Amino acid sequence: MWVLGFLLLCVWCINGEHLELDQVVLVPEDWLHAGRVAPQEDVELTFALKQQNVDRLQNLLQLVSDPDSQQYGKFLTLEEVASLVRPSQLTEKAVWTWLQGHGIRNCHTVLTQDFLQCTMTARVAETLLPGTEFHHYKRGDQTVIRSSSQYSVDDDVSEHLDFVGGVLRFPLSSKEISKAWAGPRISGNAFHLGVTPATLRTRYNLTAADVGSAANNSQAVAQFLEQYYHPADLAEFMKLFASGFKHLINVERVVGKQGGGKAGVEASLDVEYIMSTGANISTWVFTNPGRHEAQEPFLQWMLLLSNMSAVPWVHTISYGDDEDSLSTAYMNRINVEFMKAGLRGISMLFASGDSGAGCRHLTKENVFRPSFPASSPYVTTVGGTSFKNPYKITYEVTHYISGGGFSNVFSMPDYQVSAVSAYLKGAQLPPESYFNRSGRAYPDMAALSDNYWVVTNLVPIPFISGTSASTPVVGGILSLINDQRFLKGLPSLGFLNPRLYKLKGTGLFDVTEGCHLGCLDEKVEGQGFCAASSWDPVTGWGTPDYPALLAALMKD
Question: I need a surface site. Which of 115, 274, 399, 408 has the fewest CB within 10 A?
Answer without folding.
Answer: 408
